[in-house]
Design goal:
The complex is a heterodimer of chains A (123) and B (421). Chain A contains 3 helices and 5 strands; from the N terminus they run ααβββαββ. By secondary structure, chain A is an alpha+beta fold. Chain A folds into 2 domains: 43 residues, no CATH class; 75 residues, no CATH class. Chain B is an all-alpha fold and 421 residues long. Classes of the chains: A alpha+beta (123), B mainly alpha (421). The interface between A and B is medium-sized, with 26 and 26 residues.
Chain lengths: 123, 421
């Protein structure tokens, strides 16, 4: 079984870490992943940019509505995600709008990635 | 991370929210700060035992408010001392109050707190010091170090600023849209001033003053999280990230300035650049350009250029033309002239800055740019006069050293030219 581990924390606190604290946490996290990585059982690892960089596409209406900021409703649940390489936010929104046509309702949050490691997992 | 480090980070990040909400309850800055301090002491006592609360800010607001009210009662001597245990278990009450403290309250509370620090009667340096003390929670010695003054001088400066604010009318009513927009503009300017205090540091001062840049970025992130749809706040944060990303490459080992085109671009902070680019991209979708967005867009073009010769000077020239319209200033025109020199050569740039001579007669960069243009044209004697003037106007040793390097090169050029003849 493949599992996704989703990371939640207070952004205000995490972005108040000093550089030393940040580095300390990161090196501990890398050590914690090592066993899985060596066994070829670690998939892609991503770190997202802060929510201030996020844009949300509400696709429960036509045309869909673009809103600045992260997805904030609690009525809908996280069901999956895509990783896509785009030239600009505009292009990423176009991609999300295409997806929205195939699967209306709900929202997509478009958030730039700070880091993406491919992992060691084989298909 | 150990408990104390975690608690410290949580208290720091909760501070603006908590102090600004407490200010709304107590309507007095000293009481709000004192209540927050007391709440922090309680947090240091109970959090390691009971675990951290889910919403540290809400916890601190509630405890701070209770402690503050108790303190007021104590002063009135009409009630017995409160029972400390009544405050120790807050888990249920905490989630209840968190529900009541919705985001819209936070928004205006924090904006109000920042806005108070920008009181027009306060000189800029006091505005910044006050914001760093009250909003960011930096200690007086930390702020004193960043301003390169003694602790007692800074203590005095902050006390005076607070006294002046205590006398002024603090706007407690919820602002309407135009007032809110105006406050936001004033606060954005103050945050950029904090940033520039750090960014203008040179050489040996850098380690002391650079934290101001980090703090300004933190404040701008906070502001943007509350006002998610404001393109100028996105622009401000992008601008600061893109400029701060270059800090490791801006000075050599002797503390002398390294010009943008001579910087080692591998030293630029790529994560900061990526975040800055994402933000300016997002801001420009609004098609509501403003000075911060345009300046960030210029910084973004520099950041995108892998090598100096990849820089899109034509686009930079267009952006400076936009900036001249939005925010007319001889300094903007001077910067535009640098782009023009890359596009059309030094003569065109000289013609452009000639009319600025009167306005910028006391401005270091004007004579630096003028000297460099004259030097490129081979008018070495005039270049020397301009560089001499620049040195006389230099704001610090690093600027003077930078111009002296130009003069040395001029000397060598003249010497080798003389040999050839």
């Amino acid at each position: 079984m493949l599992y996704a581990v989703l990371c939640y924390n207070s952004e205000e606190t995490v972005f108040s870490w000093s550089k030393d604290e940040e580095e300390a946490v990161m090196s501990k996290l890398i050590a914690a992943q090592e066993k899985m990585a060596k066994a070829g059982r670690l998939g892609p690892v991503a770190r997202l940019m802060p929510t201030t960089t996020a844009t949300t596409l509400r696709k429960d209406r036509e045309p869909p509505l673009v809103i600045d900021g992260p997805f904030a409703e609690t009525k809908e649940q996280l069901l999956g995600f895509y990783v896509v390489d785009c030239e600009s936010l505009e292009e990423a929104l176009d991609f999300a709008k295409e997806l929205g046509k195939a699967n209306p309702g709900g929202s997509y949050e478009i958030r730039p990635m700070a880091l993406l490691l491919p992992g060691t997992l084989k298909q | 991370m150990n408990d104390i480090a975690w608690i410290d980070a949580a208290l720091t990040s909760a501070r603006p929210r908590a102090v600004s909400a407490l200010l709304r309850y107590f309507r007095d800055l000293d009481s709000a700060e004192e209540a927050f301090q007391n709440a922090c002491l309680k947090a240091l006592d109970t959090w390691p035992r009971n675990g951290p609360p889910r919403d540290p800010a809400a916890w601190l607001i509630m405890v701070g408010r209770n402690v503050g009210i108790d303190a007021a009662r104590r002063q009135a001597k009409s009630h017995p001392l409160p029972d400390d245990d009544s405050l120790s278990d807050l888990s249920d009450a905490e989630s209840a109050i968190a529900d009541r403290l919705d985001e819209s309250h936070y928004r205006d509370d924090i904006l109000r707190l920042l806005f108070i620090c920008c009181h027009p009667e306060l000189p800029e340096t006091q505005q910044i010091a006050l914001a760093l003390r009250i909003v960011s929670g930096l200690t007086v010695p930390q702020i004193a170090r960043a301003f390169l003054v003694g602790d007692s001088a800074m203590e005095q400066r902050i006390t005076r600023a607070k006294a002046r604010i205590a006398k002024a009318d603090v706007p407690f009513e919820t602002p309407g849209a135009p007032d809110r927009a105006e406050r936001l503009g004033v606060v954005a300017r103050m945050i950029y001033l904090v940033f520039n205090e750090g960014y203008s540091a040179t050489g040996g001062e850098l380690p002391l003053r650079a934290p101001l840049c980090d703090e300004a970025i933190r404040l701008a992130r906070l502001l943007l999280r509350l006002f998610q749809t404001e393109p100028e706040i996105m622009g401000l944060l992008a601008l600061m990230l893109l400029q701060h990303a270059r800090s490791a490459a801006r000075f050599d080992q002797n503390g002398s300035i390294i010009l943008l085109e001579d910087q080692d671009r591998t030293l630029w902070n790529q994560p900061m650049i990526a975040e800055g680019l994402a933000l300016i991209d997002k801001a420009m979708r609004h098609r509501r350009p403003g000075p911060y967005q345009v300046q960030a867009a210029i910084a973004a073009l520099h950041a995108r250029a892998k090598r100096p010769e990849d820089t899109d000077w034509a686009e930079i020239d267009l952006l400076y033309a936009t900036l001249e319209r939005l925010m007319p200033s001889p300094v903007v025109t001077l910067n535009r002239a640098v782009a023009i020199s890359k596009l059309k050569g030094p003569q065109a740039a000289l013609t452009m800055i000639e009319p600025l001579a009167k306005d910028l007669s006391g401005y270091f960069y004007f004579f630096g740019v003028k000297g460099a243009m004259l030097q490129q044209l081979g008018r070495n004697e005039e270049a020397r006069v301009a560089f001499d003037r620049a040195i006389a106007l230099a704001n610090n040793a690093a600027e003077a050293a930078h111009i002296r390097a130009h003069l040395d090169r001029l000397q060598k050029d003249s010497a080798s030219a003389a040999k050839k003849v």
